[in-house]
Design brief:
It is built from three helices and four strands; from the N terminus they run H-E-H-E-H-E-E. The chain is of the alpha+beta class and 84 residues long. Belongs to the sulfur carrier protein TusA family.
């Protein structure tokens, strides 16, 4: 997805893991995905560099769709669509 599409997306829930070091953002994403329904989108805020590889790898491993990342002011916004 393009950055414009991601920025205009309505997430069902947002997890703010800014200030949390690895594996904090990933653990917060795991908790957060359980709060959205199948087909809905979870948005994760993180300023930990490891999240750029951890979140997509985890989503693929457990069967969710990683939609992409958008850079914001000092942090990243990651988007995952719950698939199961």
């Amino acid at each position: 997805m393009s950055a414009a599409e991601l920025n205009s997306m309505e997430a069902a829930s947002t997890v703010d893991a800014r200030g949390s070091a690895c594996p904090g953002p990933l653990l917060e994403a795991k908790k957060g995905i359980g709060k959205v329904k199948v087909g809905e989108v979870l948005e994760i805020y993180s300023n930990d560099a490891g999240t750029r590889t951890d979140i997509p790898a985890w989503a693929k491993k457990v069967g969710h769709e990683y939609l992409g990342v958008v850079e914001a002011d000092g942090y990243d916004k990651h988007f995952i669509c719950r698939k199961k």
